[in-house]
Amino acid sequence: MNITWSYPIYLIPHGAGYVSILARDGSVDQMLVVYTCEQSAIEFMDNHGLPGEPRPLQNGREFRWLLDALRKPVTRVAFDPQIIERQAHPRWELPVKTLRDEHLSADFSPWNYPVYVIAQGTGFVSIDGRTSDGRPLTAIAFFTSSGRATEYLTNAGETGELCELPDMRLTRRFLDRLALEVFAVAVDPVVDEAGRRAKHCFDIATLLEKYLVAAP
Length: 216
What we know:
Elements: E1 9-11, E2 13-14, E3 17-18, E4 20-22, E5 30-35, H1 38-47, E6 55-57, H2 60-69, E7 74-79, E8 82-84, E9 87-89, E10 92-95, H3 96-103, E11 115-120, E12 123-124, E13 126-130, E14 136-142, H4 146-156, E15 161-165, H5 168-176, E16 184-187, E17 190-192, E18 195-197, E19 200-203, H6 204-211
Parallel strand pairs: 5-7, 14-16
Antiparallel strand pairs: 1-5, 1-6, 2-3, 4-5, 7-10, 8-9, 11-12, 11-15, 13-14, 16-19, 17-18
């Protein structure tokens, strides 16, 4: 079965949890309702008189956490179900364990993908700082949206080429090939009256060893 989707995906809020529907085999088991299109989720809510808005899941980690939290009688997941004559007709229907173990890719990245870097000349936009013990440090700038990258260039009065890193595999490859003098990643740095700075900075070696790895 060829099952692929892109994020965000959408759940239907209901009370303290999310909408599930009866399994089609006549058992007492239920299927969690998941939509791969926001508009389809909104139409489901409108058709059934449900208040509020669909809840987006932004990445595989969030989806995995949700699946791990499910308890009986919710034992299956129904993707994009159409309700025809009170019967559910999902695009895909799988047991929770099968979905988690065979079709869900998740990792421990400290950001959602894609992320962006800015090519300038022979390198990439970086900022200079210091480690906790006062040593000088060069950190490459990673941006969690193209808008933040563009805003950085505008405020810095500079130009550059936006480069997208779409997933963990390519991000690892990119970091492995960086110049040796770059030791860290600065996430969403900004330019203001105080200079160029970032609230969050990660050592590259730590990223590769602990965070840019697949969840078990």
